[in-house]
Design goal:
Layout (H helix, E strand, L loop, with lengths): L1 H27 L7 H17 L5 H22 L5 H21 L1 H4 L5 E2 L11 H28 L1 H11 L1 H6 L4 H27 L1 E2 L6 H14 L4 H17 L12 H22 L23
Antiparallel strand pairs: 1-2
Helix pairs in contact: 1-6, 1-9, 1-10, 1-11, 2-3, 2-4, 2-9, 3-9, 6-7, 7-9, 10-11
Length: 307
């Protein structure tokens, strides 16, 4: 039971990394990104191939995953600078599906639908499953803490305030002299890098990646997490991710109460519970559980006394 709880907490941390990445792209900059699963897959496959095919150390694979996802995010943003709203959402959704289809069909690179097994984890062979889950949980939660601290500082910095200005009124931000196009590319790259980090964490924890893992349903879960937690609030992103995992995993224990329920019916029941919970949260707290508040600016230097 303890091993299961540690694994669940690890997956919650991975979802939190995804929600923090989405919060930079959508919550702060206002760009709708429905291709989360694609960047998640890029990070997972990049780190898996680096450590399995090339034999590189795990930290190098993780760094490569972040870099690949960030570069892909910058390129997607650069190519879609003139798109907004629904059009940007459609393009990013298509990007996620293209990555999944490439992973499923380019057998020479990704092993196709069979996936890549045997991805190394930190001290996997030297630890018992319980201690491996405990170590993975600690590492993922440490990554979440660092990502939260960095994105919170970003939100309070002048760059974060410029992103929110762009989100609220792009024309006004441009008239004020802000380099709107550059900020959009940078925000997309930072958020995509966090999505790639989550993908690498998933690959090294589960030791297996396959195309079917990276379906659009994952994107829906992360949007639900950020919306319920509080769009634009870094703490809300983390809270929402843990809440979604709590509902997903907690609903499994409801299935035995319904005798004769098949696995497909149990999965449908979990989807109903998640949808109902979101409706309740949005009805009671339309701004999310942790609503966005204007952050206090960072103190760049101490204020001296007036002479």
């Amino acid at each position: 039971m303890l091993s299961y709880l540690l694994a669940t907490l690890t997956f919650a941390g991975i979802y939190a990394l995804l929600a923090l990445g989405l919060n930079v792209i959508w919550g702060m900059a206002g760009m709708v990104n429905l291709g989360l699963a694609g960047f998640f897959a890029l990070g997972a496959y990049a780190s898996a191939l680096a450590t399995v095919a090339l034999g590189l150390p795990i930290p190098v694979g993780v760094a490569l995953a972040v870099a690949v996802a960030a570069v892909a995010g910058a390129l997607v943003s650069r190519l879609t600078l003139n798109l907004r709203g629904d059009y940007l959402a459609i393009v990013t959704l298509g990007f996620g599906e293209v990555i999944r289809l490439i992973a499923a069909n380019e057998i020479w690179l990704t092993n196709g639908s069979d996936g890549i097994p045997g991805i190394p984890g930190p001290f996997r062979g030297a630890l018992t499953p319980l201690w491996f889950n405990a170590l993975s949980c600690a590492l993922v939660l440490a990554a979440v803490a660092i990502a939260w601290w960095m994105t919170e500082r970003l939100r309070r910095a002048p760059f974060g305030r410029a992103l929110r200005a762009h989100r609220d009124d792009e024309t006004a931000a441009a008239v004020a002299g802000k380099p709107v196009r550059l900020y959009k590319v940078q925000a997309f790259a930072i958020g995509a890098g966090l999505l790639g980090l989550a993908g690498a964490a998933y690959a090294h924890f589960t030791s297996y990646v396959a195309p079917d893992i990276f379906r659009p349903l994952l994107t829906i879960y992360i949007f639900l997490a950020l919306t319920a937690g509080g769009t634009g609030n870094t703490g809300g992103a983390v809270l929402g991710a843990f809440l979604v995992i709590l509902i997903l995993e907690g609903s499994r224990f409801i299935e035995p109460a319904f005798h004769g329920m098949s696995g497909a019916e149990g999965a449908a029941l979990r989807e109903i519970i998640i949808g109902t919970a979101l409706i309740v949260v949005m009805r009671l707290r339309p701004e999310g559980l942790l609503a966005e508040r204007p952050p206090k600016p960072l103190q760049t230097q101490p204020q001296g006394r007036l002479q």
